[in-house]
C-alpha cells in the first residue's frame, strides 16, 4: 500500500557522464519501490538517449509476450523544446517538466527522474526539484573528476568541479523558493569484487569530499553481467522470483538483490524510514 503522502517525493538521478549505470539504477529503484507497495512514476528527461523509457518499453513487451503481469510505474518523457530562442525553449521545457511532476505528484508516492548525462536546462531544473539526488559514479578517478579536482601525486582534493558547482546552484535555487534541502547521495557503481588499491584511494577521496561539498556516501552496485542482460527484457533483480521469469535464484542474484535493498535503505525515504523505525 502507498503511504498517502500529500506530495510525491522526487528522486533525481543525475551526473554529467555516461556509462555510470544511472538508468539501470533508476529502474531498479523504481521497481524496488513498486515491490514495496508504493506508487511510483518514472520521468525520462533524456529525450535523446531514452534509456529509461526503452527499459520500460522492454518491460511492457516482455509482459505481453510471456503473459506475465509485473508492477509498472507511471511513465512520461519530457521532450526538448524546438523553440528558436533559448529563452522561449527554456520556458517551454520548464512548463513541460513542472506540469508532468504536478500530474504525477497528485497520484504517486515517488517520482524518479532520469537526467541526461550532460548539463542542460532540463537537467538543472530537475536537480532543483529533487528531494533526493542520487549521483552514480564508476569506481575511477575519471568519474571522480566530475565532483572534484584531485592532485595526481598526493590525492588531495584541490577543489570542487563543475558538476558539484551545478548541484550547489540547484540547492540555492531550491532554498530561495522555500524548498527543503536536497539530500545528495553519491554511490559507486561497477565495483570490482576484489578491492584494489585504486578502489581504496577513490573511496578515501570520496569520504573526504563528502564532508567538504555536502553529500552522503551510499552503497552502489557491483560489476555484474546480470544487470546488463536484464535490460533487453525490461526486468530487474526484483522480478526474478516472479512466475515465469526465472525458476531458480543463484547466490549472485541474491547478492545483487540485496544491493538494491541496501541502496533503498540508505536513501532514508519517507514512509520507508518510518517503517524501519517502527520495526
**Helical residue percent?**
40-55%
Shape: globular
Tell me the series of helices and strands, N- to C-terminal. EHEHEHEHEHEEHEHEHHH
Strand content: 15-25%
Count of individual domains: 1
**Cα gyration radius (Å):** 19 Å
Strand order of the largest sheet: 3-2-4-1-5-8-9
Largest sheet entry: 7 strands, parallel
Descriptive notes:
The protein is an alpha/beta fold and 279 residues long. It has a single domain, classed as Rossmann fold. Helix content is 45%, strand content 15%. The protein has 10 helices and 9 strands. It has helices at 22-35, 51-66, 86-105, 121-129, 141-144, 162-176, 197-213, 225-231, 251-266, 272-278, and strands spanning 9-13, 40-44, 74-77, 110-114, 132-138, 148-150, 157-160, 183-189, 216-218. The strands form 2 sheets. It has a 7-stranded parallel sheet, sandwiched between helices. Helix 2 (51-66) links the parallel strand 2 (40-44) and strand 3. It is globular and about 55 Å long.
Descriptive labels:
279 residues; alpha/beta; Rossmann fold; 10 helices; 15% strand; globular; disordered N terminus
Strand and helix map with partners:
Elements (H helix, E strand, L loop, with lengths): L8 E5 L8 H14 L4 E5 L6 H16 L7 E4 L8 H20 L4 E5 L6 H9 L2 E7 L2 H4 L3 E3 L6 E4 L1 H15 L6 E7 L7 H17 L2 E3 L6 H7 L19 H16 L5 H7 L1
Parallel strand pairs: 1-4, 1-5, 2-3, 2-4, 5-8, 8-9
Antiparallel strand pairs: 6-7
